[in-house]
Amino acid sequence: LPQWSIAIHGGAGTLQREAMTPEREAAYSASLQTALDAGAEVLRTGGTSEDAVLAVITLLEDDPLFNAGRGAVLTWDGGISHDAALMLGQNRRAGAIAGVSTIRHPILLAQAVMQYGRHVFLSGEGAEEFASDTPLERAESAWFVTPSRQKALARYRAHEISLADGEHRFG
Amino acid sequence: TVGAVARDIHGNLAAGTSTGGMTGKRWDRIGDSPIIGAGTYADNNSCAVSATGSGEYFIRAVVAKSICDLMELAGMGPLEAGDNLMAEVAELGGSGGVIVVSKRGETAFSFNTSGMYRGRADSTGLNEVAIF
Q1: Of these residues, B1, B17, B40, B107, which one is catalytic?
Q2: What is the ipTM for the molecules in this complex?
Q3: What is the dihedral of CA B56, B57, B61, B66, to 10 degrees?
Q4: Which pLDDT value is given to residue A15?
Q5: Which chain A residues contact residue B65 at CB under 8 A?
């Protein structure tokens, strides 16, 4: 049995397998390998599972190929709404945040909530206010929003609006 | 969504998940990723889990905690427990997948849709990334 181990994921696949070109596959694979290597290095050198998880996720949050942090999908109004959670098996301490839009690394805000210890799950404006009492890096929308996600939202909205005009209606 | 689960040399587990949600979401919709027990869970007595997929179904099936329960209470391995919960998600109408690391350091992927980005490594030399 291994002394340490790590597994990572980059989501459920916003790009369908049949649409994956060799160049795209190489880019995704390289990003996953970089993140995996970062987490493995933490564990190989005796670091904690918490630090390994954070090493992986902060890298992927900065990578526009994946749906978290920079390059995350957009809301109906074209905005940002990030969610994240962190949990430790040793003591089952946990922290989670939802609906934040200015935190460069949402997973680190989840960690801050966990470390604060009084609450487990903060959301929206309250989570942003909590973040203001931490040294966590903030970012403008321009950092998070990418052209490919804007195009995806435009396609989605056009499709949804056409459905709403037909027999389907939003309730 | 992105996520990671890990076991360190002290036997401690951790799980993390981060996401932008789903394209065009409205009404401050929140999926399973930040919900402890649905999209993210860790317990040294069983396993650590991070999920990705159609979050509403992962919430209804309480996927992450249920995988840990199957491992701790029914003695299942991480793949068998993960497959059980992903079958339940599929039965409800959802799709996606999970990554699991057991308290013994075994890793497993379970998913029921294509285009899944995955990677894993351990101290025995395992090192792989793949797009399933």
Answers
A1: B1
A2: 0.98
A3: -90
A4: 54
A5: none
